[in-house]
């Protein structure tokens, strides 16, 4: 079953990119990322085992990383081929491979804030908390897209995952104070403040 899922992910990623008109170097890079991840899965994965959902990370119970990413960037972007492959590797337990995919991505596209955020998220998951390399990735994303709320939001998730719920809530409240009232992503940030800002709110370990 694992091989089937991997193949479907690869086909869907390539099809989505072609429908969006992605061609040339970007499509070749996406293909290289898919091949790299597939090779890693072939060497380290266990396709014969049934799949199981990953445990929810502390402080992230109210949203998945993919859902949050789509709320800020949309469901179909050129970066999704890298990010979905990283997600698949992380979901199979290969967090190191998930980091490697996005290190390769930012190496090819160093001015892409979405890939830098993805790398920060992958580093946090791999290390079990916020680290200097992850902080650098989020900071780089913020520098590349000043005023864009995605980097502060995901940095807040990393803070919450590392046990600093108060820091996350303070960051998100500041983001909301600067946000337009009709911003499409605003409900997600408000949900995060409501969830983590409640002292009695449970955080699953």
User: How many strand segments?
Assistant: 0
Oligomer: single chain
**Share in β-strands:** under 5%
CATH fold category name of one domain: Serine Threonine Protein Phosphatase 5, Tetratricopeptide repeat
Under CATH, the homologous superfamily of one domain reads Tetratricopeptide repeat domain
Gyration radius from CA atoms, angstroms? 17 Å
- Helices and strands: which structural class? mainly alpha
Concise account of the structure shown:
The chain has ten helices and no strands. It has helices at residues 2-19, 24-44, 65-73, 80-91, 95-108, 113-127, 132-144, 150-161, 165-178, 186-196.
Structure description:
By secondary structure, the chain is mostly helical. It has a domain at 57-196: Tetratricopeptide repeat domain (Serine Threonine Protein Phosphatase 5, Tetratricopeptide repeat, Alpha Horseshoe). It is 68% helix and 0% strand. The protein has ten helices and no strands. Helix 6 runs parallel beside helix 8 (150-161).
SSE topology:
Blueprint: H1 2-19, H2 24-44, H3 65-73, H4 80-91, H5 95-108, H6 113-127, H7 132-144, H8 150-161, H9 165-178, H10 186-196
List keywords for this structure.
205 residues; mainly alpha; Serine Threonine Protein Phosphatase 5, Tetratricopeptide repeat; 68% helix; globular
